[in-house]
């Protein structure tokens, strides 16, 4: 099989690393047509080109053949795999010669090409056409059976990290010999979408946290782009080394605050990789449009600096001293500029797991020039607000009737607090300052109060209310009398028995969210929340907990994780061609998520819908976000599709195999 890839090589040589590469120029012809012309001398035995199209079987185009592309949309802003094609179909005449490259993938190399390999699912005809005879055992099986088989082998691992590594091998290829798992991107995503509840804790929190901690030892194949201080001045070229050009989403971290685990330096790469797998599996963004990036400016983690297997720069972080801060800011600015230059202004950049001292500033600085979004500040806020809106249906009252207390006043804490205040203000027409007074935050020094204002970081200042100083959380609970307690401290087991009991004494149904990740950092466990509140707590956590049996009743905890929000939010931004993220889009995402909680879910005590319906949930979130983008005049894709939910579903990448004709 020969597959056509958009290549990042601009010299028209089209050599893309395959054993028998040869190149083509792809010309734009009248709308909905492409012309493919052979260029290079290295012609292989197959001379046709397969153009991938999400909704149609792969389309074969003979060389020098002018072929019409089925269903081509004159408007190029679309997602899904057909985007590659439309991307060039939109080129202007002076861009006619476009650097596409062809890599020949047939026979042995096809089985090792993650994007096109189907393993035993290649049918008889494909085995003949693509020189696979003899390279596979005779049986032909369906993708469904492959999924079943993979699940059996993954379930055999007892240790979650082994399951994680098996999943990564499927996505990236095993270097171990003999390979126990095949390299097959579609199978990876099919597995994840079909078994999302079982595999989310494997590829995401909590296991991804452990994977980052041990990344140096388990590292097998590079994935994503590593941009370190060594690459300063060359980031534009570094981006061009990435094999895909049509990037729609970048998740970037500098590794300084990985989950609640702290500074993991370059090993934080596991997080952008994990988040982007969810963009595809949960939100339907095409995998080739996703780019994980780690910015490496050193680490202050002594253990890593002394670890001989550490993969990052062996120096202390470029933060703290003024000259280092400039170095950091310059590197980030070069990165942000290069991204816009390479991928245009509609590429979504998700900031992930930056430390507080950079996260707020980066969001403020680039929020007006780029399509950026901070998952820890805004994504977490949106998912928590959705959970609260749903919880109020059980507890009663409006948001304005409740009092909120946070342990932790960093990105998540202040981000959630602000979104709640915005929503209260929107619902009641109350001034924002007034709405904020219903919300109190405790940080490592105690309750945030007016008398501390001079020493507070800027993002905490709006929360400094008139109140007596209080040092301990339990005293703050008794003093403030909150109806909702939210943990975003990054410190495990801080919701002690005393704290939960105090909440239960004050409230018939205390709402308690322990949001810190991974599980080890959760402020309390589900079991503790239900037991210490005598089964009265409405509980949700950032990392998953199993259902808990208490006095003969089974309680199913909610997972208030931003994974509910960012895939759908991202899809909505992409499909509308949005150029900026607006707070109202986060509110729209929250409302859309809360609306997905059914009566049946409520009857089971759930305040979040089950993850197994996440694709449908993401489509609704995407539609609401896109609608808001149109309403705010921030959407560039015109005309607005009539049915945004249907359009979102249509745009989603489908991991089912395509037939190669
Ligand atoms: O990754 C997660 O599970 C949620 C998150 O963004 C964080 O804890 O930083
Ligand atoms: Mg995060």
TrEMBL record:
Q: Which cofactor does it need?
A: Mg(2+); Mn(2+)
GO terms under biological process: malate metabolic process
Q: Which residues form a coiled coil?
A: none
This entry's Gene Ontology molecular function terms read: malate dehydrogenase (decarboxylating) (NADP+) activity; metal ion binding; NAD binding
Compositional bias annotation for Polar residues:
47-57
InterPro entries linked: Aminoacid_DH-like_N_sf, Malic_enzyme_CS, Malic_N_dom, Malic_N_dom_sf, Malic_NAD-bd, Malic_OxRdtase, NAD(P)-bd_dom_sf
**Malic enzyme N-terminal domain: residues covered:** 181-367
**Could you say which residues bind a divalent metal cation here?**
352-353, 376
Q: Which CDD domains does this UniProt record tie to the protein? A: NAD_bind_1_malic_enz
Residues that, per the record, bind (S)-malate: 257, 517, 561
Offer a single GO CC term for the protein: chloroplast
The UniProt annotation puts the region (Disordered) at 39-80
Q: Which UniProt keywords apply?
A: Metal-binding, NADP, Oxidoreductase
Identify the residues that the record assigns to the Malic enzyme NAD-binding domain, covering every copy. 377-630
Active site, UniProt feature: 204 (proton donor), 275 (proton acceptor)
Question: What's its catalytic activity?
Answer: (S)-malate + NADP(+) = pyruvate + CO2 + NADPH; oxaloacetate + H(+) = pyruvate + CO2
Q: How is the cofactor bound?
A: Divalent metal cations. Prefers magnesium or manganese.
Q: Which PANTHER family match?
A: MALIC ENZYME-RELATED (PTHR23406), NADP-DEPENDENT MALIC ENZYME 4, CHLOROPLASTIC (PTHR23406:SF76)
- What family does the entry list? Belongs to the malic enzymes family.
Question: What name does UniProt use for this protein?
Answer: Malic enzyme
Q: Whose protein is this, by species?
A: Gossypium australe
